[in-house]
Amino acid sequence: MATPHEQILALTLIPAAATIFGGAIAVWRTPSETVRSVIQHFAAGVVLAAVAGELLPEMTREHQPLGVVIGFILGVALMLCVKLVAERVEARDEATSGGKVGLLAAVAIDIFIDGLLIGVGFAAGARVGTLLVIALTLELLFLGLSVATSLAQANWGRGRNLLCIASLSGLVVAGASLGSALLGGLSGVALEIMLSFGAAALMYLVVEELLTEAHEVQETPLITVAFFAGFVSLYLLELMA
């Protein structure tokens, strides 16, 4: 019988596979900006539902105000630091060779953090962790699609492109492995800090990454509805679980 750690890693293979699948779609046929925006809105709704329906109730149940404050500060600070470093490396790339080192470094960090967040979810319970796997699967599907599109525009061949995406996808498994190993058995203030950290990081992902980029495309009713469809889809799944 598989151990809890092995079960977590097995579930994490789903978002890893979704990353590769998104990359494969982009390599063979790049979706239109409208389709990508719809996917981003839907994924944002799903991730926000995971935060609102699972993480926030767990944080309320723990009832550790200091832990909430510390966790939110750490989560927001980490995401802002990642953004700052990524912007500087990308600017350096553009000023020199026009390479993709900055983009790939930023994506690698993002994917690893997603894995850690899955570990945080499982620290709160199997239900929370599983729903976070579902939510982040959609986010990583889009991320794989987006990165592969960018690499294709830089004249990367299909094989090299897919190999890069596959390598990056392994980081979500590594992050989840580390997260579950370090965070398993947490309780009290320590658990509250990690839950709040996860909630802040996911909210940043929704507001500052998914929706910000999605709004670069002209809004249509279909695009707007996709966000709420994503939210209610995961929320209904939570109610039926």
UniProtKB/TrEMBL annotation:
An example Gene Ontology CC term for this record: membrane
InterPro entries named in the record: ZIP (IPR003689)
Residue spans crossing the bilayer: 6-26, 38-56, 68-89, 101-124, 130-151, 163-183, 189-207, 219-237
Keywords in alphabetical order: Membrane, Transmembrane, Transmembrane helix
Keyword Transmembrane helix in record: yes
Topology in the lipid bilayer: Multi-pass membrane protein
Matches recorded under Pfam families: Zip
Annotated organism of origin: Aquabacterium commune
Primary subcellular site in the record, as a coarse category: membrane
Protein name: ZIP family zinc transporter
GO MF term list: metal ion transmembrane transporter activity
Subcellular location: Membrane
